[in-house]
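Mods, move this if it's the wrong board.
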Amino acid sequence: MRLFLFLSIFVFLSASLFAEDSLTLSSKGELIYEENFEELTKRLQVGEGKWQIVDGASIKGMQQKEDGHTAFRKMFLDHQDVIYQFDIMLEDTAYAKFLINYERVHLANCIIKPKEFSISKLNEVNKRKQMEALAKAEGKPVEKGDWQKKNVVLAREEISIEKGQWCTVTIELVGDQMVAHLGDVTLRGKHPGLKERKTNFGIQAAGLNGWVHFCNLRIWKAEPKA
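Not the wrong board. Structure tokens:
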């Protein structure tokens, strides 16, 4: 009970500590998604890996060797220009990923490792081929385009996250620009593919040693600054 009370207080304070004027591209508009991780609800069921709710206030994930894939939970939301915000805690050598997707396609991600923070535009080709095959099988129109053929790291910085340290990550995605904040580190990137429609996003736990904890996940519509 004490742990639950402490975590609840922390969640409230961590969301408040990231000042509105720290945002670079935008300000927070309407809150369009909120996940408190009180239980494994239906919208948290899509994914792989080992996941557990902790004290009705956060979720922790661990990659399983037999899956051959990072641990992930996919959440569905049709959205465009937004501000994502969540808190994480890393254990041992595990690290966190936040993926931004269109259908099956991974458009972009933010990776938080104990010593490194990065944002990337991702290779679309393989996922586009999967979508094309599915569309043909279902008799639906096939999407065509000059899809991104390689991963591009938009920005990367060295950081230092201690074991058991909670951190707030805020990601602004407006038009073709992406900005990610963690503490006093800000990453900035630009790519035309970032403008594509987004229909889901995901949290990921990578590495076979240790849990990755997530809490206080919020998404707001982004109101662009002048």
